[in-house]
Amino acid sequence: MQGGELSMENQRPHVVTCGLPYANGPAHIGHLRTYIPADIYVRTLRKLGENPVFICGSDTHGTPIVVNAEQLGITPKELVTRYHRYFDETFRKLGVIFDNYGSTDSEFNHRRTQQIVKELIDRGYVYPKSIELAYCPVCEMFLPDRYVDGKCPYCGSPARGDECDQGCGRHLEPGEILDPVCRVCGTRAESRIQEHYFFRLSAFKDFLLEYLARLEGTSNARNYALGWVKGELKDWCITRNLDWGVKFPGRDDLVVYVWVDAPIGYISSTEQWAEKTGESWERYWKGDARITHFIGSDIIYHHCIFWPAMLKGAGYTLPTAVVASGMVKIDDKTFSKSRGYVVWVDEYLENGFHPDLLRYYLASYTSHTKELNFSWKIFQEKCNNELVAILGNLAYRTLLFAFRNFGEVPEGEIDEGVIEKIGETIGLLDRSIREYEPKRMVDSVMALANFGNGYFQSHKPWELIKEDKGACGVVIRNALQIVKALAVLLEPVMPSKMEELWHYLGMETDIHSVGVKEALVPIEAGVKLKKPRILFEKIEDDAIEKMENLLRGRIEGGEEDIEKEDIEKMPELVSFDEFMQLDIRIGRVVEAEAIKGSRKLLRLLVDIGEEEPRQIVAGIAGIYKPEELLNREIVVLANLKPAKIFGYDSMGMLLAAGEGVLLVPDREVNPGERVR
Question: Residue 598 and residue 646: Cα distance in Å, rounded?
Answer without folding.
Answer: 8
